[in-house]
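INFO  loader      accepted 1 record
INFO  loader      residues=131
INFO  predictor   begin
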Amino acid sequence: MVAAAYEPHFFQAMADEQEAMVWLSRGMERLRRNRSLILVDREKLLVLARVNQAGSLYDSLRRISDRKISYAMFSHSDAPMPDMSEELEVQRFEFDLRQNREIDLQKPVSIPANMTRKVRQDCAARFRILI
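INFO  predictor   done
INFO  writer      dumping tokens
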């Protein structure tokens, strides 16, 4: 049921956290009574499943304000959760901030062609931009 509601990019982004996906599938029902569910809580990683409601991202950021975020990902399901009217929101925060000198700016970056195409299509549709 989770797989049908999310784009493949979500699963690619979470591929390194298979255990979190197991916790999500086992605990999604708990989101009927609770606003959030902790999927991973480690020194350098926090993954939350939340009911997608106004202010949910702000609430999470307020709770982790003392930690320096190096990467953040926010995903929303394309459909409401089972027996609910709200969508699922998954928030991933990484806390592995590095100094500029530690980052290899010469390392080639590969962006999949299908992702580039989708971003261009979305920009063109949403912002009437020709790319």
